[in-house]
Protein 1
Amino acid sequence: MAPPLAAVSLTSPLFSPSSSRPLRRRHAPPPSVSFQTRGRSPAAAPAESSGSPLLEVRGLTASVKETGQQILAGVDLTIREGEIHAIMGKNGSGKSTLTKVLVGHPHYEVTGGTILFKGQDLVDMEPEDRSLAGLFMSFQAPIEIPGVSNFDFLLMAVNARREKSGLPALGPLEFYSVVSPKVDALKMDPKFLDRNVNEGFSGGERKRNEILQLSVIGADLALLDEIDSGLDVDALEDVANAVNGLLTPQNSVMMITHYQRLLDLIKPSYVHIMENGKIIKTGDSSIATQINEGGFKSIALV
Ligand SMILES: Nc1ncnc2c1ncn2[C@@H]1O[C@H](COP(=O)(O)OP(=O)(O)OP(=O)(O)O)[C@@H](O)[C@H]1O
Ligand SMILES: [Mg+2]
């Protein structure tokens, strides 16, 4: 079934002028990030982090709109410019819900707390406006958009952003020269541009396509939900290279993953652990190593 337009708009990677800035590899994880413990604000920025806050989430609670079931139970998270944050946690701990609430997914209702994005209150903003403000989400299970070609979808998204910035719309030919090198960089067959968005795409192809959207449209903050799931080893490397190539000192990534292998390719500044709708621990990539070796039980009591 075709998704409602509002849902479609959620997939629009927001592009931002920053996407055309020169690219530079992000800083390595700060060595002295201390572990956060339950009950403390997990996202207090360490002294060495100098970027401005992009996303500030405080005491965020959210429920499923239809049933009122609470999923997020008080999330605190700060993401500054130039940082890469990884979110890990058991199945059902609320990771995807957090990203969906951040982009304004219509299935969820914010019941408490605040979300600031570049100082703007996100909670009452429409999903489209969040997207235009520079927030991008790649879905754990990317949706199909029947009847809309990948090329047209990307062109529409790029031109919406250009319009907002007062720039003239790009024509198809002009846009092709923009999108083509990105398709090549992701080692995608250019034929994917003519296919309807995600229709008939394999799981791995959908993931690659999400990153194509991100690389064409750009974002100040990209929320990547399990971009590594379903990718073969080579595809994972291509996708990670593409994400790394988009990083600038001004933009940031929040990536959800279950696996350390992604964090070996895209080095996080911070790793957060979610449990029961909250971030219960924050630290550096050594947390991921610990989980990899001993499971979540190995960190639960630390
Ligand atoms: N729309 C919804 N309706 C009912 N329950 C929901 C809804 N959205 C989320 N949930 C429930 O909230 C909990 C958190 O779901 P979420 O998808 O955020 O988990 P997750 O941490 O991303 O898990 P995974 O690692 O398996 O992807 C789950 O128990 C899920 O069933
Ligand atoms: Mg999930």
Protein 2
Amino acid sequence: MSLASKIITSFSAIFTTTYNTLESILSRPAQGNDSQQDDHTFQPPKPTDKRSPCPMVNALANHNYLPRDGTNVSLLKLIQAAKEGINLAPDATLIVGLKALQTSTTGGWFTFNLDDLNKHGIIEHDGSLSRKDVFFGDNHSFSPETWATVFKHFHGLEKIPIDVAANARKERLEAAKASNPEFNLTPDHARFSVLETCLYLMVFGEGAKGNARTDWVRVLFEQERLPFQEGFKRSESMLTVVDILELQKKVEAV
Ligand code: HEM
């Protein structure tokens, strides 16, 4: 293991342990409204609910792990939601969550609304798998045409191997570059784009081995729903930054 990986692993372990300890000390038995809070059934958003360009964040709100109205999400709530919904390690959520706070329009330092994430150039970038580029006017709503160009790579496959996912992403970026005269992808955004592919491979697959279940991935993108009724279960072991970094190397290699 390289020195950088060792440092990241140590930091990750310390952060996650600290978070888990604080959470267990601070969490109090819910008073009165616990049945409402524990209702994680899927409900599509109401027209007034705020949603983001991220299918997973939207799904977490559609299942009430995040506030259904998509407003005033704190970093702590985001970390808790990702842990409860898909068992993503707190340090992994922290990395993207800190970026999310940079988009905030809530007036508070530690909260954001889900549609704040639409802001181009912080996390949101060109060449998304299921959204159009900001140049075409809407960078956040699910675009069936865009997704179809990606999903065609997965047709007939029960599971999506890493190389297929990486090639689908690569082709989507090439198509975006060819069609958008203002196409721009900074190295930072290119890294986010790779990480997004890693995230769906990991959450719906076999950790750092990829092999995401095609039908589960489809439900996430097309319905912004966690595919519980299709058999998805939150991973028993926590999905860590180390797994993501391992996948990142494999996707980048393709
Ligand atoms: C919890 C904190 C998270 C935040 C704040 C966040 C935020 C975002 C944002 C702003 C985008 C738009 C990027 C773009 O395509 O322009 C995005 C895309 C994406 N996110 Fe998340 N995300 C989070 C966690 C996750 C997780 C846990 C997954 C796991 C599956 C995930 C999956 C994706 C995917 C697949 C995309 C690409 C969508 C596309 O290209 O069409 N995200 N995320």
